[in-house]
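User: Here's a chain of 328 residues. Predict its fold as tokens.
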Amino acid sequence: MTGFPATRLRRMRRSLASRALVRETRLSPEQLVAPLFVRKGRGLREPIGSLPGVSRLSPDEAVASAQELRSLGVPAVLLFGLPERKDETGSEAWDDDAAVQSAVRALKQAVPELLVATDVCLDEYTSHGHCGVIRDGEVDNDATLPLLARVAQSHARAGADVVAPSDMMDGRVGAIRAGLDDAAFAHVAILAYAAKTASAFYGPFREAADSAPKFGDRRGYQMDPANRREAMREIALDLDEGADAVMVKPALAYLDVIREARERFDAPIAAYNVSGEYAMVKAAAANGWVDERRIALEILTGIVRAGADFILTYHARDAATWLRQGDT
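Assistant: Prediction complete.
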């Protein structure tokens, strides 16, 4: 006999133990990367209004956060910098004494087993808020590439394990790879923001990093959210140029992109559970509309189920805590 009543799928759902035994997708703290916002100073923790539970940190406070994350099993952080000054080219981005570089050195000294990745982009550092050099009112792709390579080299000198270009300039992975190799940093990996769309989900991040463009928008270089086939082309090109891992950003509205990328490519695939996705959960939880723990873990599990190998998420600390506590 096949089918009901001989087949009863509920049998393996009856208990915590049976559900755990047959679970197809497993989420663990080792799959999480925590984004950290860093700025120069000491003893600084500046709460970010639109990202409850997230703060801008001085390097010493970034170390304290990283030590907590490692104790919870989170293996990596991704650093974003807030500059002391901005100019037309974003030159503080490749200053060896800037916030990111200072934080990298502090982290590698205090938590050497931590994987430290750094965001490589110019938007936080430019006076106009765009991700590259402005020529005739728009971002000049080719003039931006050598500046991105300089940023990556500076981060590598500080001790970064991974550089993560997020600018979406054509050819930037190849330029960064060549720049790193020429400077004797062949061991530094590249995590490319390969399929990054011009998304409405980035609003809280732009407050956190003070990176909103002063004119226009970024749709001329970030991807159209409607294009999945183009996302596959972007990923393929970044891998051909030397990316060691690729990222889909955002995650929730792009699970189909993650799934197709997983089916097409053998490279490690990351997904960025971005600020707007996090903020919506926090706001709904604060109003009592959702169970924050359950919904956050369900979202993260769904991203892994779609095919992501690891997730960059502002839930990293809390999610790792919940996962260590076990199911309920």
